[in-house]
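Researcher: We're teaching a course module on how sequence relates to structure. For the next exercise, students receive a sequence and then see the predicted structure as tokens, so they can try to spot secondary structure elements on their own. Here is the exercise chain.
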Amino acid sequence: MAPTKDGRKIFEASAFSGPIPPPDLLDKYNQMIPDGADRILKMAEKQSIHRQCIEKWAVIGGTILSHFGVLCALIIALATLYFGSNLIQAGHVISGSIFAGSGLVGLVAAFIYGTRSRRQERIRRDQQNKNLIRQK
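Model: And here is the predicted structure for the students to work with:
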């Protein structure tokens, strides 16, 4: 705070958001710490690279899990049809039909539920992003 001629005090404040301070503040860092601005910029670059790497692996992991889920569903479907057809060929027509049918109905229900859940999650995230944009 600095007093004026008439005795009033003036208060000045500044703020910034983000990893990189404004240029005048970077210059002050350079005056206080040798290569201070360069160190801050390198830190921001490293953080950006780190965040992008984490996001990339999150996408890759989600893709792998998605393919693994489809593979598991295929195995379950084939096994259900195989054992259901074996029951039918052995003379247990009703049991075999119920076994094969219930397994396939369960897979279809799981896919429908998963699709709806993902759609609802996308809608929820879109709404959150819109709210964040409105706040800025």
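Model: If you want an answer key for the exercise: DSSP finds three helices and two strands in the chain. The chain has one domain: 17-135.
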